[in-house]
TrEMBL record:
GO BP: L-methylmalonyl-CoA metabolic process
GO molecular function: metal ion binding; methylmalonyl-CoA epimerase activity
Protein name (database record): Glyoxalase
Domain of life: Bacteria
Keywords tagged on the record: Metal-binding
Amino acid sequence: MKETKNYPKSFSHIGITVPNIKEAVTFYSEVMGWYIIMEPSTVKKEKETAIGQMCIDVFGEDWTEFEIAHLATSDGVGIELFSFPNGIKEAPEFNPFNTGLFHFCIQDPNIEDLIDKIVAKGGKQRMPIREYYPNEKPFKMCYVEDPFGIVFEIYTHSYELTYSSGAYSR
């Protein structure tokens, strides 16, 4: 009998579609401090190149070109930005109740300053900053929105620290 070993997979990257690739690279590199790994470039639908064929496999035949850029967080997680010329440029309605990606979360111990930077660059603070363990531990969180309407969360501490003590129990 074959024994299967399960182990935790690491997070490689997340792909985000934005209305303007250059504005998004500027926002995420300046506000989040993410490293620019690959400046914005154009990918064309062409079967002769590996990237062109790969994108045809993913997106189908109903496109001609798009822009892409790659950034990375301090811990090496990739942020892949896409901008399609014919896509809808407005953010979808925020609806966490439907199946699909709800949000992503980034971590910064200085949550107040980061929220101020996000708002100053055209984003929104969607809720007050909340504490997981009021008067016990300094673990805070807040949902925000980038200037393009993409909702994400900010934690002050790691996911493991936030939940390892049973964040919702007393």
